[in-house]
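Q: What structure does this chain adopt?
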Amino acid sequence: MLKHSYSSIKDFAGCARRFHQVRILKRFKSAPTDATMYGERVHKAFELYLTDRTPLPEDLARHQPLFDSLVGLDREIHCEKKLGVRSDFTPCEFFDQDVWLRGIPDLLMLNGDRSKAWIGDWKTGKSARFADTSQLELMAAMVMAHYPTVQRVKGMLAFVVAGSTVTAEYTREQLAEIWSKWVGQTEQILDAIRNDVWNASPSGLCKFCPVSKDACEHR
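A:
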């Protein structure tokens, strides 16, 4: 059974050829870049501070007031919480054989009676101009699958370099519509597999693609 995630679905939408070569055939792998390594360092530093108060590195210390305000609230806090959902939208473990969709919110908080939840994702891009809140939408649905008492989820994309945030809010009444949207997107991937059609989507991003020229004429 093919496992999906927000990033894999977006990869397919960005370029089916790259998706096929990287995620299905596994012929190529993206090499680490300065940007990705910085992102990993930021995520780990924030996780350690929130979980056991490991001091933030000097270049990230300016974010401490935000995290202190979160910790000061009476909320259940999880960092890098691994969530899995089956194709019937029931919750499961991240590595279960029948998992259909996987997600890992950088931050998940729940109030005392677990009727409300907050999710956060740390972004290290230099601008929030092209922020995609659909990631928050999908994570909110997964949180509500795992916590059936949660009625409302507030989400935040925090652009730590740009110093800006993008927020969105979702309710349990929206669940059917949200799941319908994401099922439709995963069905497009299954159609490509059934028909073995993997069209390329050439763009200015091709120069960063790990796929070699012998596998794609646009490289």
